[in-house]
Structure formats: C-alpha cells, structure tokens
Amino acid sequence: MDELGANATNSAPLTPLGFLERAALVHGDRASVVYRDTVYTWSQTLRRCLRLASALVSLGISPGDVVSVLAPNIPAMYEMHFGVPMSGAVLNTINTRLDPRTISVLLRHSSSKLVFVDPLSLPLLLSALPSSPPPTPPLVVPIDDPYEHEQAPPLHSFPTTYEKLLEEKGDPEFQWVRPRSEWDPMVLNYTSGTTSAPKGVVHCHRGLFLVTVDSLVDWSVPPHPVFLWTLPMFHTNGWSFPWGVAAVAGTNVCLRRVDAPAVFSALRRHRCTHMCGAPVVLNMLANSPHSDPDPDSAPSTSSPPARPRRPPCSTARRSSGSASATGTASRRRRGWRCRARGRGSGTGSPRWSARG
C-alpha cells in the first residue's frame, strides 16, 4: 500500500487553467466569447491564449513576473486570465477608474514587467508612468479594438500591439507552463480605491481552482450558460467567472460599457442566462424604461439602496467582493441578528440567497 501514493500519473497541481483545455477539447465548436460582431469558439480561444503565453515568453517574461492589464470587459481581457498565467507569469488586473497616481503606485509596487492597455485607457497609463517611475519601465502594449478606432488615439508609435504580438510571436501549439506546485502564484489583486494605501494580495492556482468550483456550485450554474459581463473583470477577477464559464463551456458576452440600453440589448440578442453586478447596476436596470420582463439570474455585491421596484430577474443572489479573500459564501441564520449587532462584518458583507 505504501507504493500507492501520489505520482505524476494520478496527481497534478490544481489549477483553473485546465478548464480551458477541456472546453476546447470537448466543446471546441461552441461559442466562447462574443463581442459585438466578433465571435470566437472555445478552440479558437485556447489557441489565442496559447499564442499569448508563447509571445510573453518570447518577450522575456519569466515565471513569477507580473504582467498588468488596464482594460474593460473585452475579449483580450478574458484571454489574459488564461494566457498570462499559462506563460508562468502573474496576472494583475488594474481598475480603469483609478487616478494616475494610484495606478503608478500599483505598477511600481508590483514590479510589472509589461502592461497591456486598452487604447481608451492609454492617456491614463501614460499619465501614470512618470508619476512614480519604477526602476525599469514596463513594456507598454496597446490592445487593438476595431470597434473603437474613431475614439482611440493612434497606436503607430508603439512597436507592437496585442493582435500583432499574437500573430507575429505567438505559437498556437505552445506547451504552456504548468505550475510546479498548486501553491504557485497566479494572480495579484489590489484593494485600491479605498481611503488607505493599496494593499496587494496574491492568489495561488489551488485557491482560484477551489473558489471557481465553489462559485459554480453555490450559484447552481448549469452547463453552457450565456454569461453577460456587466461585472468588471478587473474586480477580483470577475469573481472567478472567467475560469468558471470555461469550466461549464458557457459563452462570455463582453460589454465594453455598461448602461441599460446595452445590457437589455445584449440580454435579448444573446439570450443571456447569467450576469453579475453591483446594486447600483441592478437598480439602474430595474428603473430603466428599457426594462425587460424576461427572467435572468443576477448576483450582486453588498446591500442594495432603498428598495427599488423588482429588477428583471427571477433569481438574485447577494454577495460581497473582496480582493483579499476567496470565500464564496457566508450564511446568516435566524437568531444571529442580536449577536451581530454592534460588530463589523469582517471581510465584506454577509451573503445570502433570495429567490423571487
């Protein structure tokens, strides 16, 4: 019996990156990412992520190096949740709503070697870099978006762009860098935008695998959901759903801007089944003249504002987002109210289910 322990044949480090491989192998022809008129399948998404990982390695990115991204919910942002750690690097998603000084602090503290930036956030990044320059300035790679050419600044002064990098240096057959240990770092998040100095937290492959599976189970996500990205992926990695949607071979519907007309248009056009959002987002939808009675499912963060009319969903799950914790749910039971009075709620607000 002593010879029946773990070995390379029956044991491997836990990582959510394997969800992408399985989705491409089993459901390769299913739509993975939808952005306006652009549609990728799971096979295409895997190949693009492998190209990204290969390109990063060719640029000298080593395991443990930090690669940052400043972008909204676009396909490249989704691909980086796989492609960056597939190179062995650590992904750092930065809030696009921060001021240049805070962004500069994050880039310096994280020792970012490379920054991918959406063209509309390029002026913000260029303002941040001189504020507190790191010892070695990071390489800046703009992300091309064919739908934003009119509003985006020209990119010809940069040596490469995201799509050129994938095309010229990416290998779709790249053997991605698997973690030697499930405790290896995979993402770096910051609790930025608060009254105190930003605080960084590193999540490992094991932790993200577990929170991804826990989130799917806790929300009872079925196979092949159509997930509408109203929650920014830079917000605690979209509550782990970039990896979760891959695990169930769903479809990611990306939204660059979140407003009521865009959300309801996407819900109708793509027949979205799931979405996430803060209370202000759900309140906006509930009070919009574009409101649609078709059911969908929406978890939200923290406690909502004064009671609005019922939002257009049949199931709502209230939760908290925390950059420094990977728990998926805490439950409140009857009889706890008196004991909770006068106390803080720890990391984030309590979370419970409400079904209409």
TrEMBL record:
InterPro entries: AMP-binding_CS, AMP-dep_synth/lig_dom, ANL_N_sf. The keyword Protein transport does not apply. Belongs to the ATP-dependent AMP-binding enzyme family. One of its GO terms (biological process) is phenylpropanoid metabolic process. Keywords: Ligase. GO terms for molecular function: 4-coumarate-CoA ligase activity; trans-cinnamate-CoA ligase activity. PANTHER family: ACYL-ACTIVATING ENZYME (PTHR43859), ACYL-ACTIVATING ENZYME 8-RELATED (PTHR43859:SF57). PROSITE patterns: AMP_BINDING. It holds the Pfam family AMP-binding. It comes from the Eukaryota. The keyword Transport does not apply. SUPFAM superfamilies: Acetyl-CoA synthetase-like. Its EC number is 6.2.1.12. Residues 20-292 form the AMP-dependent synthetase/ligase domain. It catalyses: (E)-4-coumarate + ATP + H(+) = (E)-4-coumaroyl-AMP + diphosphate; (E)-4-coumarate + ATP + CoA = (E)-4-coumaroyl-CoA + AMP + diphosphate; (E)-4-coumaroyl-AMP + CoA = (E)-4-coumaroyl-CoA + AMP + H(+). Residues 287-356 are annotated as: Disordered. Residues 330-342 have a biased composition (Basic residues). Residues 312-329 have a biased composition (Low complexity). This is 4-coumarate--CoA ligase.
